[in-house]
Amino acid sequence: MRAHLGDQLVIESPATGANRRDGEIVGLHHEDGTPPYDVRWSDTDEVTLVFPGPDAHIRHIEHEPPGTAQEPSQPYTGEAEAVSTAAPPTGTPNPGDIGRRVAVERRRQKLSREETARRARMSPEYLKYLEEQPADPTVATLLRLADALGTTVTALHGGGIDLPPGQGHALLHPQLRDLGPEECRTLLSTHGVGRIAVSTSDGRPAVVPVNYEVVDDTIVFRTSPDSVPSAAVGREVAFEVDHVDEALSQGWSVLAVGPASVVTEPDAVRRLSQRAHTMPWAGGEREMWVSIRPTSLTGRRITPADQ
Fold first, then answer.
1. How far is CA 142 from CA 122, 137, 150, 154, 178, in A?
2. Per-residue model confidence as pLDDT tens digits over 199-250
């Protein structure tokens, strides 16, 4: 018997073949996938160390190619198997959408994988598997992860991703408070997506999203000379970043105002290119770096009045 993280351990009645208990394998104790296993039982949501007996088999959930029938493994007899099975996935990570969202939210909150796993009551190895492989975790697992990350199962699934934010119900007793400069700097963080407000060459206002970085308290982004964001150069502009928790009807926004200029010094351009966390999502040739040095930094946060 060999298993991967995320597989299902099924215990059946030898006489009738009916399921008596099943659970998700959330921890391995041997690299080759042989028993024992840490199993989170579907009926109690508890994790126990299991040495499978002859009435148990593995249902491989995550590792069968599309369209391949899933055959249960042979009952475990305690003897070495003559035919080897696939080892746990290795090599270049190939995360699914849920894994990507879990990893992004964990890093956004500056949580280690170990701390997140502890909060979600799962092994760090299983969390690593979820973040790096196209997994389909159980609802119970998603609930624990959502609780550990302070988000929702819907958000981890990407539900409502194409809908504009703000369609949820307002809080019964909302509190709108101003943010200080230090909290604003923290929320700006080091990189992400923000919106820059500019006046175009024909004098018309425009607001466009850009991928940005924060370097030495200066906001920088890449664009092309003929783009709308390039109209910011040589002018005072507004740059806004926000986050909305649709499920909890709360969120924050930060507004930076200051002069924008082109970064022309070759060493500075090279350092920015090397330190960039992401390429511009819009693609294409965007090698002109624009910097905004805020002279004003303000923000607001909406929370329940009792927080």
1. 11, 7, 12, 9, 34
2. 887 888 999 999 899 988 899 999 988 889 998 998 999 999 998 876 667 8
> 165 vs 162, 184, 240, 249, CA distance in Å?
9, 21, 16, 9
What is the reported pTM? 0.52
What is the chain written as a DSSP string? Answer: ----TT-EEEEE-TTT--EEEEEEEEEESSTT-PSPEEEEETTT--EEEE---TTEEEE--SSSPTT---PPPPPP-SSPPSS--PPPP-SS----HHHHHHHHHHHHTT--HHHHHHHHTS-HHHHHHHHHS-----HHHHHHHHHHHTS-HHHHHTTTTTSPS--SPPPSSEEEEEEPHHHHHHHH-SEEEEEEEEE-TTS-EEEEEEEEEEETTEEEEEE-TTSSGGGGTTSEEEEEEEEEETTTTEEEEEEEEEEEEE---HHHHHHHHHH-SS--TT-S---EEEEE--SEEEEEEEEETT-
